[in-house]
Amino acid sequence: DAGITQSPRHKVTETGTPVTLRCHQTENHRYMYWYRQDPGHGLRLIHYSYGVKDTDKGEVSDGYSVSRSKTEDFLLTLESATSSQTSVYFCAISTPSAGNTIYFGEGSWLTVV
Amino acid sequence: QQQVKQSPQSLIVQKGGISIINCAYENTAFDYFPWYQQFPGKGPALLIAIRPDVSEKKEGRFTISFNKSAKQFSLHIMDSQPGDSATYFCAASTAGSGTYKYIFGTGTRLKVLA
Predict the structure, then answer these.
(1) Residue A38: CA atoms inside 13 Å, Cβ hemisphere, count?
(2) pLDDT digits (tens, 9 = 90+) for A37-94
(3) Is the pLDDT of residue A1 over 70?
(4) Which of B90, B101, B106 to mutate to test the interface with A (most CBs of A within 10 A)?
(5) Which residue of A lies nearest to B40 if distances are taken between CA atoms?
(6) Residues of A with CB below 8 A from B30's CB?
(7) What CA–CA distance (Å, rounded) separates B105 from B93?
(8) Beta strands B10-14 and B108-113: pairing type?
């Protein structure tokens, strides 16, 4: 358990609405990540953060934005949800003291109808 | 060049048998190769990892074999148990800039029959 809490854990939303997923960590990790998991694609990086207000894009960032105003919180926003964004979203952290290891949260299941 | 190709997509093994999952990569800059185990409804959890300076790493019933020249690595689960039934992901990463961005394989769904 890397002290990661994701919310909400499950959400159903309508196409075109904005959605924000929250990742909260309690252990002061510097690096935080958002991944999405889809059948046949494995886990793909959406955005990551290397400090407060320091974020960068991953390989599937279109349609997503992130913010990190505090060390402990990393927010993922779908600005206008589409059906292709129906997925399982995982927040993750890494810390230099644990080498290269990434630790994942429990996931947020998002369905866009 | 950034892809990690994982096979098979699914695998059924009898209890006590050996499960083998393979991964191949192209980017020679990768320097860390972890395997993750994921149970339904849970996040992936680190199972075992290897760096390219060794050819094999063993932890209990789980072994990673690494072939640097072939750019391939594999996970072997000895004496497979029904509790090992899960989805397994290989990954590769480079530690450039201090952020650890992983490239994941597409996953293997393992079912161990009792």
Answers:
(1) 13
(2) 998 889 999 999 989 999 999 999 999 999 999 999 999 999 999 999 999 999 999 8
(3) no
(4) B101
(5) A106
(6) none
(7) 12
(8) parallel
Q: What does the alpha-carbon distance between residue A70 and residue A42 come to, in Å, rounded to a whole number?
A: 29
Residues 40-99 of A with CB under 8 A from B: 40-45, 48, 50, 56, 58-59, 90, 94, 96, 99
CA distance B108 to B87: 5
Minimum distance, in Å, between the CA of residue B80 and any CA atom of chain A: 23
Taking alpha carbons only, the member of B1, B73, B33 closest to residue A102 is B33
Rounded Cα–Cα distance for residues B76 and B58 (Å) = 9
Q: Which amino acid is at B85?
A: S
Query: Hey, which residues does A5 pair with through a beta bridge?
Result: A24
